[in-house]
Design a protein that fits this description.
- Mean pLDDT is 85; it is low at 6-10.
- The protein has helices at residues 3-9, 22-34, 45-51, 70-80, 95-103, 117-186, 194-208, 213-225, 235-238, 246-252, 255-263, 270-278, 299-314, 325-334, 342-354, and strands at residues 14-18, 38-42, 58-62, 86-90, 108-111.
- Helix 7 packs across helix 13.
- It folds into two domains: 3-147, Response regulator (Rossmann fold, 3-Layer(aba) Sandwich), CATH 3.40.50.2300; 187-354, Hypothetical protein af1432.
- Helices cover 60% and strands 7% of the residues.
- By secondary structure, it is an alpha/beta fold.
- The two termini are 83 Å apart.
Length: 356
């Protein structure tokens, strides 16, 4: 809206006049009403503060009034932050007063008696225009703030929906891969249920070691995906009843790297991908594929390694007889510091022993 149109849209201007001299006060009121303004008149500064409100467009204020004078009044008005232009009426020889009034924030000053009515009207109109401009800017800022708040709420709502969609997409992606992995296991009666057991063992270890929910969730997903790389390995190698040839062993040892590459496009599975890649590493550095050792292997991976190895040792396989639980635990303890993290083996042993 153009400023001229904004002015036309406003109602009759409201002017507040304060002067203790009834003759001056009445004269100013009549002049203002003659020019079409709506006028309210009071006798001193205290009355100004009693009646002033946001509907007032301009205040015409005498300086020398009993009780609260003009200077005290404008100071009080400034504290209320109404932003109403104040025009001071000054008597003859009181220019020092006028300068002081301007320094206190007065919009303008008019000398008494008022002799040039046209000039007087120009000053009033300018003060009213300033007031309207201030109001317009205030309305604009308020509307802008409302619009910003509205858009912020809308954006927040969309962000929530986007997060929910992303979360569902992540779950769907993981479930799809898990389904494929489960289908692979079910083809071999010797490996059926392996992933489920490794996941259960790993979660028990995590809880016993007081790991966070976030860490437990990462371990859970990593366990569910740890053998996904076997999907692209010749199943005859995996199900072979006898020893593997050197070529077949090289192929099988690639499944951790392949597994990480399968889930790498899913950025939210970065941590899980590292565990998948390294779940066959050893404490002594003789594992694969990267030959990591000791603290180069993170704790979550060490947990999965223990759970995976124990289940492999105690489950039936086409190429070997399975160990008993006691034999499996003894093998874990025998391989601490060479293959397994001692602290993880201790915790896991305590869990299984307490189940007897």
């Amino acid at each position: 809206m153009a400023f001229a149109d904004y002015l036309k849209s406003r109602k009759q201007s409201n002017i507040l006049v304060a002067d203790d001299d009834p003759l001056v006060r009445d004269a100013v009121v009549k002049i203002l009403e003659l020019f079409g303004h709506k006028v309210q008149a009071v006798t001193d500064g205290k009355e100004v503060l009693d009646v002033v409100n946001d509907d007032i467009d301009t205040i015409i204020l005498d300086i020398n009034m009993p009780g609260m004078n003009g200077f005290d009044t404008i100071k009080a008005l400034n504290k209320r932050e109404l932003e109403i232009p104040v025009i001071f009426l000054t008597g003859g020889g009181s220019m020092d007063y006028a300068v002081k009034a301007i320094n206190l924030g007065a919009y303008d000053f008019i000398a008494k008696p008022i002799e040039d009515l046209d000039f007087f009207e120009v000053k009033i109109r300018r003060a009213i225009e300033k007031r309207l401009f201030v109001r317009r800017e205030k309305d604009y800022k308020e509307n802008l703030e409302k619009e910003v708040r509205k858009k912020t709420r809308e954006l927040a709502g969309k962000n929530i929906l986007l997060k929910k969609y992303s979360h569902h997409l992540e779950i769907s992606s993981v479930n799809t891969i898990i389904t494929l992995n489960t289908a692979l296991e079910e083809k071999d009666p010797y490996t059926a249920g392996h992933t489920k057991r490794v996941t259960e063992f790993s979660r028990l270890i995590c809880k016993a070691m007081a790991l966070s929910k976030k860490e437990i969730d990462v371990v859970t997903r990593a366990c569910q995906l740890h053998d996904i790389g076997k999907l692209v390995i010749d199943v005859s190698c995996i199900q072979k009843s006898g020893p593997l040839t050197d070529e077949e062993w090289v192929l099988v040892k690639k499944h951790p790297e392949i597994g990480q590459n399968i889930i790498k496009p899913l950025d939210f599975l970065d941590q899980e991908g590292e565990i998948v890649r390294h779940h066959h590493e050893r404490m002594d550095g003789r594992g694969y594929p990267d030959g990591l050792k000791g603290d180069e292997i993170n704790l979550l991976t060490k947990i999965v390694t223990v759970a995976d190895s124990f289940d492999a040792m105690t489950s039936k396989r086409s190429y070997k007889l399975n160990m008993t639980k006691e034999e499996g635990l003894a093998e874990l303890r025998a391989c601490v510091n060479t293959q397994f993290e001692p602290a993880v083996v201790d915790v896991f042993s305590a869990i299984l022993t307490s189940r007897n």
